[in-house]
Amino acid sequence: MFNLKLLQKNKTVKYGIPMLLDPSLEAKVNIQRQPVILEEEYEKLKEMNLDEWKNIRGPRPWEDSREYQEQQRRKLSNKD
């Protein structure tokens, strides 16, 4: 008989089998379904307006994020 504790500690059983049983992962592995997924993502990108995007810098680790956000809001309100 199999020892249940050994199976619970086995990394293949713990992490590998749930991934094999995941249906969303199956769609990524299924070669026949892949072109459909790519076409869906392409359609999503076509709908986005990529010409009018703004690069927004986040705060540095040593900067206070709330203070930095307030500065950015002030800059935006001064431009309007």
From TrEMBL:
<keyword id="KW-0812">Transmembrane</keyword>
<dbReference type="GO" id="GO:0033617">
    <property type="term" value="P:mitochondrial respiratory chain complex IV assembly"/>
</dbReference>
<comment type="similarity">
    <text>Belongs to the COX16 family.</text>
</comment>
<keyword id="KW-0999">Mitochondrion inner membrane</keyword>
<keyword id="KW-0496">Mitochondrion</keyword>
<dbReference type="GO" id="GO:0005743">
    <property type="term" value="C:mitochondrial inner membrane"/>
</dbReference>
<feature type="region of interest" description="Disordered">
    <location>
        <begin position="56"/>
        <end position="80"/>
    </location>
</feature>
<keyword id="KW-0472">Membrane</keyword>
<dbReference type="InterPro" id="IPR020164">
    <property type="entry name" value="Cyt_c_Oxase_assmbl_COX16"/>
</dbReference>
<protein>
    <recommendedName>
        <fullName>Cytochrome c oxidase assembly protein COX16 homolog, mitochondrial</fullName>
    </recommendedName>
</protein>
<keyword id="KW-1133">Transmembrane helix</keyword>
<dbReference type="Pfam" id="PF14138">
    <property type="entry name" value="COX16"/>
</dbReference>
